[in-house]
Amino acid sequence: MRYLSLFLVLLFALQPTVSASAQSPEPAARPVYRNLVMEGGGIRGIAYGGALQELESRGVLAGIRRVGGTSAGAIQAALLAVGYSPQEIIDVVNQTPVQRLNDGRGLFFGGSTRLIRQYGWYRGDQLTRYLTELVARKTQRPNLTLAELHALAQQEPARFRDLYTTGTNLTRQCRQTFSYETHPAMRVADAVRISMSIPLYFRAVLLDTAGHVVPHPAKGQLVEVVVDGGLLANYPLDLFDHPRYLPGAAGPFINPETLGLRLDRAEQVAYDTRPGGRQQLAPYAVQDFGSYIGALYTVALENLNAPRPEDWPRTISIDTRGFNPKIKRLSAPQKQELMDSGRQGVQAFFNRAEAASR
């Protein structure tokens, strides 16, 4: 009896501890991110430098094995893929002579002729040359192909990553993805150039039926016309929503290992970061011709590239601080403002995630 009483005393004495332990859930583990996707956004893509720095400081960037993007997001993704660090990407952005990329003879007549015959006011050749230079600085191979980059990523995963960019194939009337899986012989520089081929701004890129870039097609040669991926996939967060990118997965699914960087107005970011994500587009104050164009651009682009409800839990929204996507020269303080906003967007995302897991 004495032993039974002692047992009961010990049982009741330990019960609160056992109960408390059972009722205290362990903190949710942070998701492991293997894929990073960056939205197109013109000059506002400068913000990605700060965002990448913050991801690096949090240890997220070290786990990324694949990077994808459209337009301005494609060039940042490419720099990351060939081995640039976030600080080096910021240095490239600060040193890039943006206006010099607007190449082509003849300010008016030359541009108008190219527009009619080659579908772009500027040639875009200087942009391609600059991209090959950037690739060569890290790999010593200006003509590095997507397949060669994949081999480097397999050999040195801590330094290199696979690259995926998007384009809009006007001939086929569809979105197109460029990677070592689809176009192994394509140069990294050309994959980015395609994704940055802003319609009517830069000359369109021509591809032959095998997917090779054709600078000057022969008479009668069949070619496909490809332009900026932002027309149909400005935020291609679904690039890695396939079982081959997640071992053990099967069928259609949303890849939890994908993280996206997205650029939006402050008003839209406030809408999108509410519980449940975006329910509608934020109102746009139209007060003059500039804001009229901005509102027109926004409603068209956002409805053509409407995100899915399930995308918001894996999307980092970055405030564009009132800058429009037009390619133009920005001052050092303006660039810093965008980069600071990128950093703050990442901080806000993880702060919300940590609060939700408590």
Task: Give structural notes.
It holds the Pfam family Patatin. GO terms for molecular function: hydrolase activity. The protein has one domain: Cytosolic phospholipase A2 catalytic domain. The chain is 42% helix and 13% strand. It contains twelve helices and ten strands. Strands 1, 2, 4, 5, 7, 8, 9 and 10 form an eight-stranded mixed β-sheet that branches. Helix 2 runs antiparallel to helix 4 and helix 2 packs across helix 12. The radius of gyration is 24 Å and the shape is globular.
Number of strands: 10
CATH architecture: 3-Layer(aba) Sandwich
The unreliable regions are: 1-27
Q: Give the proportion of residues in helices.
A: 40-55%
CATH superfamily: Cytosolic phospholipase A2 catalytic domain
By oligomeric state, this entry counts as single chain
The name of the CATH topology is: Cytosolic phospholipase A2 catalytic domain
Number of domains: 1
Measured by DSSP, the beta-strand proportion falls in: 5-15%
Shape: globular
* CATH secondary-structure class: Alpha Beta
- Mind telling me the C-alpha Rg? 24 Å
Task: Label the structural class.
Answer: alpha/beta
Mean pLDDT comes to 86
The number of helical elements comes to 12
- Helix and strand sequence: HEHEHHHEHHEEHEEEHEHHEH
Major sheet characteristics: 8 strands, mixed
Kindly, what is the distance between the CA atoms of the first and last residues, rounded to a whole number of angstroms? 45 Å
Main attributes of the structure:
358 residues; two-stranded parallel sheet; 10 strands; alpha/beta; disordered N terminus; 8-stranded mixed β-sheet; Cytosolic phospholipase A2 catalytic domain
